[in-house]
Design a protein that fits this description.
Layout lengths: L5 E7 L2 E9 L39 E6 L2 E5 L1 H7 L6 E9 L8 E9 L5 H14 L1 E9 L2 E10 L2 E7 L8 H4 L12 H12 L12 H14 L19 H23 L1
Parallel strand pairs: 1-5
Antiparallel strand pairs: 1-2, 2-6, 3-4, 5-7, 6-9, 7-8, 8-9
Subunit structure: Homodimer. Interacts with LigD.
Family: Belongs to the prokaryotic Ku family.
Function: With LigD forms a non-homologous end joining (NHEJ) DNA repair enzyme, which repairs dsDNA breaks with reduced fidelity. Binds linear dsDNA with 5'- and 3'- overhangs but not closed circular dsDNA nor ssDNA. Recruits and stimulates the ligase activity of LigD.
């Protein structure tokens, strides 16, 4: 059984519900250690004083923030603790907002929130149903493991989900980061009609279970093949970029291929 990573209370108005927080996701990434090529020697990282070359114990390390070229302000761990908002025990809902108004770019990570004890189920379910009926999310701040989080609470099949959100100043504008931004007038006419036809021909229901991490599977197969001395199969190169002149023809062929694929899938299902 999973262990709660945080416990406290949801607070909205004069209502307080003891709850526990659980991670909603898990990492299936294949992790590697580092070795020196041609040897079985592990590569390990040490905290080393760059002037003396000696390893420094963890309790002798302080933090430094660069304020100018080569100039640092040194901060002791105790000083950070003194200004921290403290170990929060409350998810204090400050407002309920329309869920559809939250841009997906703000969502960071998801957690499940459950009642701390069975006797707290009634107010818990009441809050969940109220948010479901109104399509609203509760916006709350809380502190976990020394960090303050902005969160959105929402109902998910009778359970409360907590989504940590990026703060507004953490979201980067695409104009500030893209080397090349799309230019020219908006497409229209036959090309747009054909692109719409392609989108519609590929329309489907969202079924998360239809998708899986195939890259991790290939990494695991690579490891297994190398362990058994098998031949390594190289994946095909990605397709080349579609030229502007060939765009209409590529769209037409894509629509036809998509329709054939759907037709074949329906015959198999029948």
């Amino acid at each position: 059984m999973a262990r709660a990573i945080w416990s406290g209370s949801i607070s909205f108005g004069l209502v307080s519900i003891p709850v526990e927080l659980y991670s909603a996701t898990e990492d299936h990434t294949v992790h590697f250690n580092q070795f020196q090529r041609g040897t079985s020697d592990r590569i390990r990282y040490k905290r080393v004083n760059e002037r003396t070359g000696r390893e420094v114990p963890y309790d002798k390390i302080v933090k430094g923030h660069e304020v100018d070229n080569g100039e640092y302000v040194i901060v002791e761990p105790e000083e950070l603790e003194d200004i921290a908002p403290g170990r929060s025990r409350t998810l204090d809902i400050e407002a309920f907002v329309d869920l559809d108004e939250i841009d997906p770019v703000f969502f960071q990570k998801t957690y499940w929130l459950g009642p701390a004890k069975p006797e707290f189920s009634r107010p818990y379910l009441l809050l969940a149903q109220a948010m479901k009926k109104t399509n609203r999310a509760g916006i709350a701040m809380f502190v976990m493991r020394g960090k303050q989080y902005l969160t959105a609470l929402k109902e998910d099949n009778g359970i409360l989900a907590v989504h940590t959100l990026f703060f507004a100043d953490e979201i980067r504008s695409p104009q500030d980061v893209l080397d090349v931004t799309p230019e020219g007038r908006a497409p229209r006419g036959k090309e747009l009609d054909m692109a719409i036809s392609l989108v519609e021909s590929m329309a489907d229901d969202w079924r998360p279970k239809d998708y899986r991490d195939t890259y991790t599977e290939r990494v695991e197969k690579l490891i297994a093949d190398k362990r058994k001395g098998r031949e390594i199969v190289v994946e095909a190169e990605p397709p080349e970029a579609t030229g502007v002149v060939d765009l209409m023809e590529a769209l037409q062929r894509s629509v036809e291929a998509s329709k054939k694929k759907r037709s074949g899938a329906k015959k198999k299902a029948g």
